[in-house]
Amino acid sequence: SHARATAAGDDGPTVVAHRGASAYAPENTLAAVDKAAELGIRWVENDVQRTRDGELVVLHDDNLRRTTDAEEVFPDRSPWKVKDFTAAEIARLDAGSWFGSAYAGARVPTLEQYVDRVERNHQKLLLELKSPESYPGIEQQTLKVLANEGWLDRRHVAGRLVVQSFSADSIRTVHELKPAVKTGYLGTPAVSDLPEYAEFADQINPSHTSLTMSYVSAVHAFTGPHGRPMEVFAWTVDTAAAARLVAGHGVDGIITNKPDVVRDAVGED
Ligand code: G3P
Ligand code: CA
């Protein structure tokens, strides 16, 4: 492997399939989870939001236009915000055809359906709370779904779940509600602010574009809330060259739309 040893002490960075294996199957669908599994990728990333009637669903954008046929099915519901549609309405949408006809009929999964599939595939989940400021209470609600699915059981929680967000407040809330859950902050805080983040974040997950070796080392020097060095998972890295670069910086994980490419370049066996 081209990778340096990481804080976790393994061979190379953990490879995370971004929105599932989203270069090869429609993002954030069960098909993208399965595609990652077929490629032998253990970790998948997703984006969690909430419907008008309070169901948690998996979708990246705050509106349904790009990745579903909502405009066609509900022509008078501009601007097609996720939070303005019921779960039953969203369940009618086709979330696969935009990507390719082979995926026609793919659905926007509920969080529960998504977690079930990840579990069935023996995979692990990097769950992003997307725009949590739009969804008051989504932290508690997400933890409740995970608890119902058995994902917060003591023997499971540490091994297969990280909750991340661009909102520090949101992951601080997750940490306070359920300290056993590992958390990640999406962004690049100033090094002088890392002591504060180390109180509630196990990971600092920056865009790969501005990442340096000295920043990764600075993060590793802090101990996270679970008594281990804070980790760095970089996104979104889709070429072998970029993967080698960030692996050389010492990152612990790489979040990628092309998990096979990254795994073959630098990933753990
Ligand atoms: O997991 C990191 C990455 O997903 C953050 O950006 O916009 O793809 O959710 P975004
Ligand atoms: Ca995301």
TrEMBL record:
SUPFAM superfamilies, per database record: PLC-like phosphodiesterases (SSF51695)
Ranges of residues in domain GP-PDE: 13-266
InterPro entries named among the record's database cross-references: GP_PDE_dom, PLC-like_Pdiesterase_TIM-brl
Presence of keyword Signal: yes
Residues spanning the membrane: none
Record Pfam families: GDPD
Keywords from the named record: Signal
Coiled coil residues, start to end: none
Protein name listed in UniProt: Glycerophosphodiester phosphodiesterase family protein
Annotated organism of origin: Streptomyces parvulus
